Amino acid sequence: DILVKTSNGETIFVGDAKYKILSTETKNVQYQSDFYQLLSYSKLTQARKAILFYPRFENESSVEFRDTLLENLQVRFVFLPLGMDNRDDLQASLYEMMVDINNWIAN
């Protein structure tokens, strides 16, 4: 579980990291409980933004998710690049992901 707050205690976002592969065929069923868990966290902390982190391996095709808005909660799905052999590629990919998250939080 992830909870990020400002220095004055305001919640910036909540998040949850999962270690399961989401298949294209069953993605809606697989992530539904994760989504509702995150919705509960956000209500408890009064967060307006939330992120679900899932692994993505190099040889795996991407599962497409769109950012979702539910009850004034913006949810972002982030797929962490795991299994990359090249350290520079991994660092570049993680950096790009963090910039994207930072921009999303700022808006």
Structural account:
The protein is of the alpha/beta class. It is 36% helix and 31% strand. It contains two helices and five strands, in the order ββαβββα. It has helices spanning 27-45, 87-106, and strands at 2-5, 11-17, 49-57, 68-70, 73-82. It has a five-stranded mixed β-sheet with strand order 1-2-3-5-4, with helices on both faces. It is globular. The two termini are 23 Å apart. The model has no long low-confidence stretch (mean pLDDT 82).
Rg, Å, rounded: 14 Å
Largest sheet: 5 strands, mixed
Mean pLDDT reading: 82
**Element order: H for helix, E for strand:** EEHEEEH
Shape: globular
Strand pairing plus helix content: what structural class? Answer: alpha/beta
Extended strand count: 5
Kindly report how far apart the N and C termini lie: 23 Å
Strand order of the largest sheet: 1-2-3-5-4
Summarize the amount of helix as a percent range.
Answer: 25-40%
Helical segment tally? 2
Low-confidence stretches: none
| Residues in β-strands, percent | 25-35%
What is this entry, summarized?
The chain is of the alpha/beta class.
Which key features would you list for this structure?
alpha/beta, 31% strand, 107 residues, five-stranded mixed beta sheet
